[in-house]
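Write out this protein's structure.
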Amino acid sequence: MRDGAAMAYQTLKVSTQGAVMTVAVDRPDALNALNNAVWEELLDAFAAAEADDTIRALLLVSASPKSFVAGADIKEFTALDGLGARERSARIMGNYDRLRRLAKPSVAAIEGWCLGGGMELALACDVRVASRTAKFGYPEIKLGIFPGTGGTVLLARLIGAAAAREICLLGEIIDAERAYGLGLVGRVVEPPALEATGRALAERLASFSPVALRECKRVLDAMLDDDMAPHRPTELDAYRTAFDSEDRHEGVAAFIAKRAPSFTGR
């Protein structure tokens, strides 16, 4: 791909500079929520990066400072039943795996909201740097569900079971310093330095041997995949059960109506 070239997308801004491809999610009116259109274009961009020998690293950012990715697009949940939700979860789980298993290294430069599916997207990257104003969390429990597209098991493997349990069950939003302390991000910088720091990390990765990076990632992914694989069916089945509940319907309806949910345990 020609240096500085931009690829045409509806929900992304994708460009190249040197050996780094920058992918910026661009749905500002929806706080960059991940819907089917965003996923289709993200997968296309990942494939383009993988196929282009001149691209040696991927930088994932937001096109606006307010939100990296605020999670999944909840409006798409209203047409799903439990089986459909399980199938969707399995598909999106595979999408995160596609990013994580890219032969080329990826960096997430995070500012604003990084919630739910957005945090899963960041966790699928190899290196994460956050603006000091970034906010993280899995708020799905407030909708009567949980992060069931791979986020529960992956988080526990990356930061430990006790910290993951607290994040998943409480649904609290944590700041960048807390995220750093837990190992969710590798470094925290002031907002004006975020883009330059993310790019510098991507360029540093791009300067290393593509063979060594690819093989190192393959080993790291193999260890992680072996650790997670036995638990993924449990996660998918549990997500389907939660999605079929009356509580999930109430949680989603309350979210869309911007009111507090009233859960009954059914």
